[in-house]
Write a structure and sequence with these properties.
Pfam family, one: Sulfatase
Protein name: Sulfatase N-terminal domain-containing protein
CATH topology: Alkaline Phosphatase, subunit A
CATH class: Alpha Beta
Number of helices: 15
Number of domains: 1
Radius of gyration: 21 Å
Oligomer: single chain
Largest sheet: 8 strands, mixed
Helix content: 25-40%
Organism: Halorientalis pallida
Number of strands: 18
Structural class: alpha/beta
InterPro entries: Alkaline_phosphatase_core_sf (IPR017850), GAG_Ulvan_Degrading_Sulfatases (IPR052701), Sulfatase_N (IPR000917)
CATH superfamily: Alkaline Phosphatase, subunit A
CATH architecture: 3-Layer(aba) Sandwich
Length: 460
């Protein structure tokens, strides 16, 4: 068993996040899938985790949990407090161990602007002129200013901002080619005596969906398919083609698989594969309107969103399937162990796994008022012994409980023990110690490029 082995020699790590990737779109987890050969090849020699659960269904708090080992209600990164306040991350352990550390990602949530890259030596976010110290400070202050507003003001302002953003023709590119080219360049420049930790985020499985035409064609996606590209499209589009939505998602996953293949090939071409651990995962999954309503991941904790991909290909460990439930926040302990820079962690697996999100404050400006109560809710979820309980609370504090049998996918009565467990989860504590860059003058506008990227991802 992999946890009974000890990783003693230092290894490199490629921490590869396939953003918004569902488990059921990989042949590793679903034998009927025939377009993910590269991930399958990696999985054939890897530890495959069957029951990994994210602690939050969107990027920023999910990553904060993985990096710190804390739950979202502990690190305090929420929809309303959309900036990581800092703290010990596992990346800092690599720095202390002498590894070079780098982050290559077009995801705006994993940037200095959002506080997630403080521990990296090298960061490539493809932000152009926005990638500078002044821009980062102004972005942080703009975020804090928005967060400091009252609920009602923030909600009204969010709606107005959304109307403004709709006027702009934003670039929907996920910069996947640029990301992989930067990874190839980084791996090609490593010296033989240098250990490294490389974080990579590929955005193709995340909406909006614009895979290369050859992939769209191979999955039967017509050029004029009526496909929603952002959550707000669900409220403004007529005659949505849900099957086409799922096909274009598959095309994006197919393209992602080939991008993964290029990264693995780059490791082999540079003779790094025998000294490198590849941790491949999704930070969360994606809802594709299975219920005719939910699209994306911002407002739901459904299983396709919180049950995540996780496999670890270690050159000194054989293939294995791990059935025990594990919270993704435990990667904070596991990744340094796999790299040979930390002892074997205890208590990695848990009978009860849990997560949650706060009220989606600045994400709901486009939702009609008569639908508000369906989306403006705080969620907590726990899973134990094949049962999942979800607690959602509306803005008036009224709680709703739902329970599901995860094997049969049917509703069941809420078990008292799991109701107690979900009730014991606290709310996130909002930090109040002020901005760390307090010597800068406040600015009321977030940096234009960062704002544009958020719009591209459908977060405004």
């Amino acid at each position: 068993m992999f946890m009974e082995e000890t990783a003693t020699e230092k290894k490199n790590v490629v921490f590869l996040v396939l953003d918004s990737l569902r488990k059921d779109r990989l042949s590793v987890y679903n034998e009927s899938v025939d377009f993910t050969d590269h991930v399958q090849r990696l999985a054939d020699s890897a530890v495959v985790f069957e029951n990994a659960v994210t602690q939050a269904p969107w990027t920023l708090p999910s990553h904060a949990s993985m990096f710190t080992g804390e739950y979202p209600w502990e690190h305090g990164t929420t929809h309303a407090e959309s900036y990581f306040q800092g703290g010990e991350t596992f990346v800092s352990q690599f720095e202390r161990a002498g590894h070079s550390t780098a982050a290559i990602t077009p995801n705006v949530w994993i940037t200095p602007h959002k506080g997630m890259t403080e521990d990296f030596d090298h960061v490539e976010n493809f932000l152009g002129k926005a990638d500078n110290r002044v821009s980062v400070r102004l972005s942080r202050l703009g975020t804090r200013l928005f967060n400091a507003l009252g609920d009602g003001t923030r909600r009204v302002l969010g709606r107005q901002l959304d109307r403004v953003f709709r006027l702009f023709d934003v670039d929907d590119s996920t910069k996947s080619e640029e990301t992989v080219e930067a990874v190839e360049e980084y791996l090609g420049s490593r010296s033989d005596d240098e250990n490294f930790f490389l974080y990579v985020n590929l955005m193709e499985p995340h909406e909006p969906y614009h895979p290369p035409k050859s992939y769209a064609d191979s999955h039967g996606v017509a050029d004029d398919a009526n496909i929603p590209h952002r959550q707000k499209d669900m409220f403004t589009m007529d005659d949505i083609d849900y099957e086409a939505l799922r096909r274009v998602y598959d095309a994006s996953v197919d393209y992602t698989d080939d991008l993964v293949g290029r990264i693995v090939d780059a490791l082999e071409a540079n003779d790094l594969d025998e000294d490198t651990v590849v941790v491949l995962l999704s930070d969360h999954g994606q809802a594709l309107c299975e219920d005719g309503e939910q699209f994306g991941h911002q407002f739901t904790v459904a299983e396709p969103v919180v049950n995540t991909v996780l496999l670890v290909d270690h050159p000194d460990m054989g293939p294995e399937t791990e059935e025990r439930p594990i919270e993704m926040r435990k990667l904070n302990e596991l990744v340094p162990y796999y790299a040979g820079i930390a002892p074997r962690p205890e208590g990695v697996f848990s009978e009860t796994v849990k997560g949650g999100i706060e009220y989606p404050e600045n994400f709901t400006g486009f939702i009609p008022r008569d639908r508000w109560n369906e989306y403006y809710r705080k969620y907590r979820y726990v899973k134990r012994d094949g049962t999942k309980v979800v607690k959602s609370v509306d803005e008036d504090g009224r709680a709703r409980y739902e329970a599901y049998d995860l094997v049969t996918d049917t509703d069941v009565p809420v078990p008292d023990a799991l109701k107690q467990a979900v009730d014991e989860i606290t709310s996130a504590e909002q930090p109040s110690d002020g901005d760390r860059d307090g010597d800068a003058e406040p600015d009321h506008e977030m940096d234009e490029e960062v704002t544009r990227r958020l719009e591209e991802l459908g977060y405004k």
